[in-house]
Automatic annotation (TrEMBL):
It comes from Inhella inkyongensis. Pfam families: Asparaginase_II (PF06089). This is L-asparaginase II. InterPro entries: Asparaginase_II. It comes from the Bacteria.
Length: 351
């Protein structure tokens, strides 16, 4: 039995306490493999990492222009946001443009990420709604697309069940994902994502191809290439709306702007586009470690692949080799990309 390589180690004091294995693919827009580590042909569920690809029809259909979506609203259509007040207000504002309310969203409700916000809501006697769901912006985008697809039909009636695979909205979304990744999703394993839409298992290599195409427009239809460019501009202008306060997607895109589009997904998945290199990348950690390990790998790849000024180099270094502290803020260890991973990434700087 073969194993994916160890990419990240957790150190406690002088000893390795845990190891995290994973696979990584870096691909150009022609589909040529720039770098492959581990089993990059195994189909994995990308989860929320592909939200930007799922948002392509929102722009390509003309829905975003028809309803005058702002950069923040478009960025949030690609988001796994923290449910902060500005996120909630942005989704609510988009629904107001459509003449609809939060009840139309079929993503479900959960509490926001921040403990302070949860406490404040509890003190006011509030309970979460679908607007707090980290996928509410994506679902508002689906609803916006549905308002165009509905034509003269009653919007609310047309939108019922838009999360189901055979609904016209989800057929458009799935077709965009299939085209970008050059994958026949009718043959792919399919499950139900946390927000109730279908999630399809796609090989890492094909996911990386989709993000190379997202970053360059090459290989996409003309309308999807234009949509990809519009979404990247929106995210670069409003990175807070893709994640939120102190979240890695937001932090890195605030620093690097249009040089990077990155998006985390559940269960240790990360995808990114590096437009100036013409590359896309996809990562999957075997143990599903999203909170720590996959972020370290993403930071190490970006650090190796992009020419960086001193400030950005320091930022990426902090995220590819994290200091670990206990509740008393005492330094207890570190979480770091392995020397073997650093060595494997070396050619990216020269590629």
């Amino acid at each position: 039995m073969s194993f994916n390589p160890v990419m990240v180690q957790a150190w406690r004091g002088p000893a390795v306490e845990s190891e995290h294995r994973g696979a990584l693919a870096v691909v150009d827009a022609d589909g040529a493999l720039v770098l492959g580590l581990g089993d990059i042909e195994r189909a994995i569920f990308p989860r929320s990492a592909v939200k930007a690809l799922q948002a392509l029809p929102l722009v390509a259909s003309g829905a975003a222009e028809r309803f005058a979506l702002s950069d923040a609203e478009l960025a949030q259509a690609c988001a796994s946001h923290g449910g902060e007040p500005a996120h909630v207000a942005t989704t609510a504002g988009l629904l107001t443009k459509l003449g609809l309310e939060a009840e139309v969203l079929e993503c479900g409700a959960h509490w926001p990420r921040g403990e302070a916000q949860i406490a404040a809501m509890g003190a006011r006697g509030e309970t979460p709604t679908a607007l707090h769901n980290n996928c509410s912006g994506k679902h508002a985008g689906f609803v916006c697309l549905g308002c165009v697809l509905a034509g003269e039909a009653d919007r609310r009636q047309f939108l019922r069940g838009y999360v189901e695979p055979e609904h016209p909205v989800m057929r458009e979304v799935t077709a965009a994902l299939a085209a970008a990744t050059a994958t026949d999703l009718s043959r792919a394993p399919v499950g139900i994502d946390g927000c109730s839409i279908p999630t399809y298992a796609i090989p890492l290599r094909q996911l990386a191809l989709g993000f190379a195409r997202l970053g360059t427009g090459q290989g996409l239809s003309t309308d999807h290439a234009q949509a990809a460019q519009r979404l990247r501009r929106a995210v670069a202008a409003q990175p807070f709306h893709v994640a939120g306060t102190n979240r890695l997607d937001t932090v890195l895109m605030q620093a690097l702007g249009e040089r990077l589009f990155c998006k985390v997904g559940a269960e240790g998945v990360y995808c990114a586009a590096l437009p100036e290199r013409g590359w896309g990348l996809a990562i999957k950690m075997d143990d599903g470690n999203t909170a720590r390990a996959v972020e370290v790998v993403l930071a190490a790849v970006v650090q190796a692949a992009l020419p960086l000024n001193d400030a950005d180099q320091a930022l990426l270094q902090r995220h590819s080799e994290l200091s670990l502290r206990n509740w008393n803020q005492r330094l207890v260890g570190r979480l770091a990309a392995t020397p073997a991973l650093r060595q494997a990434l070396g050619p990216l700087a020269r590629g």
